[in-house]
User: Which sequence fits this backbone?
């Protein structure tokens, strides 16, 4: 799986959009971009994933650059409950034996009141 | 739907003792994973089951760790004997499994293990 690079920490004001970048310059054509987050003392929580098109769900939006070498997770109106470590992971399409997630150290996002 | 259940939530033991963790995945999920998360790091996969068969245990320290999923539903992870470096959070996750492309993994809240 391709390596990802994320800033170790970020702050965002409550109510503003939080934009979390991820660099995955060695991504292959069949690798998806996944985002998970981990709130303190909880297990990771799936947020969103995409291949090359931008994606949106009830939690967030995922913007992937045209060359797919980087992406941005957007939390449109951050709340204090969004304070967490956010992990960007790239992984090939699911095949038996390839389902594991390889986590880096992520970005610690702190929402400021 | 009910989430992934894990117990116990916390465990403290002395080194060289044994310990076991239990996981009940989401109903209908064929794939079950055990991850180890050391403080300050992201989770690392220890073992993956598809139903009751092992798919990947390449990162499992087999001299001291063992895991089973006998009936293809719940699972136990055991450490015997424990070492100081085993202090970590042990996370269980499940997903629908192969044939359901890109289904996310759902995690339990983990068992925090402290070795004295």
Assistant:
């Amino acid at each position: 799986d391709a390596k990802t690079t994320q800033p170790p920490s970020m702050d965002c004001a409550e109510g503003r959009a939080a934009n979390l970048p991820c660099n995955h310059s060695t991504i292959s054509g069949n690798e998806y971009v996944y985002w998970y987050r981990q709130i303190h003392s909880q297990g990771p929580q799936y947020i969103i994933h995409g291949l090359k098109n931008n994606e949106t769900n009830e939690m967030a939006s995922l913007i992937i650059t045209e060359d797919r070498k980087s992406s941005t997770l957007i939390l449109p109106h951050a709340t204090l409950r969004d304070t967490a470590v956010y992990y960007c992971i790239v992984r090939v399409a699911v095949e038996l034996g390839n389902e594991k997630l390889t986590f880096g150290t992520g970005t610690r996002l702190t929402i400021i009141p | 739907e009910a989430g992934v259940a894990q117990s116990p939530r916390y465990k403290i033991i002395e080194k060289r003792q044994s310990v076991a963790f239990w996981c009940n995945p989401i109903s209908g999920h064929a794939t079950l994973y055990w991850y180890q998360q050391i403080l300050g790091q992201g989770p690392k996969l220890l073992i993956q089951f598809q139903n009751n068969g092992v798919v990947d245990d390449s990162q499992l320290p087999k001299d001291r760790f063992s895991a089973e999923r006998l009936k293809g539903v719940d699972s136990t992870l055991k450490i015997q004997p424990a070492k100081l470096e085993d202090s970590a959070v042990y996370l269980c996750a499940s997903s629908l499994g192969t044939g359901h492309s890109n289904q996310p993994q759902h995690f339990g809240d983990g068992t925090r293990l402290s070795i004295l």
Observations:
- The longest strand of chain B covers residues 88-95.
